[in-house]
Amino acid sequence: MEMNIALLPGDGIGPEVIAQAVKVVEAIGKKFNHQITFKEAITGAAAIDAVGQPYPEETHQVCLQSDAVLFGAIGDPKFDNDPSAKVRPEQGLLEMRKRLGLFSNVRPTFTFPSLLHKSPLKRERIEGTDLVFLRELTGGIYFGEPRGRNEQGTKAFDTCVYSVEEIERLARMGFEFAQKRRKLLTCVDKANVLATSRLWRETVQRIAPEYPDVKVEYEFVDAVAMRLVQWPKAYDVLITENLFGDILTDEASVISGSMGLMPSASIGIKTKLFEPIHGSYPQAAGKDIANPLAAVLSASMMFEYAFGLMDEAKAISDAVNLSLESGIVTEDLAEGDKAYKTSEVGDWLASQIAKS
Ligand code: IPM
Ligand code: MN
Where is this site: Important for catalysis (predicted)? Predict the structure, then answer.
């Protein structure tokens, strides 16, 4: 197969972890005979420094012309400490999601048998956890108008807006995911307080009869936050709005033992995008110590979701499992003896794929 992949390494550890994902994708290309072309483009603080905006038009065109986008991370502390900065790297991420129509952010949480003891939660509670969030990504309070401050600057406001159409397309994707999995869908909302949440619930209730094989549960977001750490195995597919999804997926990601492990896919109207759920981790940037596995597993999701190539996806996740079992891990996971460098883990995975 021919594949055109846009590479957006971004800020912080983004370039280092994406470099390892590229090694792995190239190894897969060789092994399975695919013609893979990469095209790199700038985003985030790196793009602000170069051209004054975090998501330049040229980068947008590279994404539109690609079959899939591999994205690293965005964010730089020099902007976090300056609330008056007019352009911020994160605006680039939001603009990219909106302009590429990436309305559904697929964030799985699963455990690795060899890392169960690394989780902050007890083994018996998490063993076998396998859930996936579909976070709505281009609506809600992240984008709603009006937003800003009153004239005196003494009040600030954001607006949460959802249309039936936005809810329905995400919910339908949730039902379809559930049909392919354990057939349980949880609609996460705050319908006891918020009008938008009541529209979510009403919309999901209206379309549910079209998916009679899927059992639907409705749960308030605060209760889900609690049950996620009490009994994560209770969940299969969860659908939720943008802000709730942002918060709950960070919470869920530590179940697996390290935030450096969880990948994500963003699916929508135009191209598809794959990114680790961790941020730019600026303290580690350039040190060759960051865990590349979330980026590598994002590449695995890319083969599955963008190209429908399950064997390729599995070859990557098998290599990752083997690296964990063999202790070929970065310092966040290393026990006592040796911690491998980011680049060494990438090299090991690529050579493992070549000989598997
Ligand atoms: C994420 C991040 C972003 C978000 C930030 C960087 C804008 O936290 O992808 O979860 O809030 O969506
Ligand atoms: Mn987040």
Answer: 142, 190
